[in-house]
Amino acid sequence: YECIEWLSSIDQTLQQDADAYPAIARHSFRRLGLYCEALLTFYFEHCDHYPQVYHNVRLQGEQRTLGECDFLLADQQGRVSHVELAVKFYLQHTAGHSEWDAWIGPNAMDRLDLKLQRMITHQLALPQHHDAQAPLQQQRDALGLTGEITSLHLIKGILFFPHEAQQHWPEYGNTDGLYGTWMRISDFLAWASTQHCRVK
Fold this sequence. Notes:
- The protein is an alpha/beta fold.
- The chain has helices spanning about 1-15, 30-45, 110-125, 135-145, 185-195, and strands spanning about 50-60, 65-75, 80-90, 105, 150-160, 180.
- The protein is globular and about 65 Å long.
């Protein structure tokens, strides 16, 4: 509850002064994903739960960069959480089709099932990857992290269903999550003409 009050007070302050907290000033970010990372970094660094917060920890192998951990967080008991963040918006391209591959992003090649597969098999698995063990241990020694690492994902965004179609959530999808609807421009213009809307 105290955390919610604290975040609400920051929101109120930012409404009055957009530059009150320069690290999370909205106008400083052109990409939503980077803004979300900044907000999460700000939260982790200012909450009491994680005394140690590290953002974008790169694991460098002998020949190439193996990957980057979005966040490494050490709590007061020394436990370490590896958190991967994604902010995505997907359209269900076929009404009634509830499989994960039925959701596409702004780029049609950006499908929800592919994003989840990469998140699970590459990003979340990075700390367990054989080639990452040595560089990860070097990072842990340098940062003073001694506890076991648990990998977690945080995927935020909105799923958009076809306008006026019955909603079919993907299997195991969070039905309490944010959602909206979408329609083609031609359908929107036809709909708008019946609503006495003026379209410029």
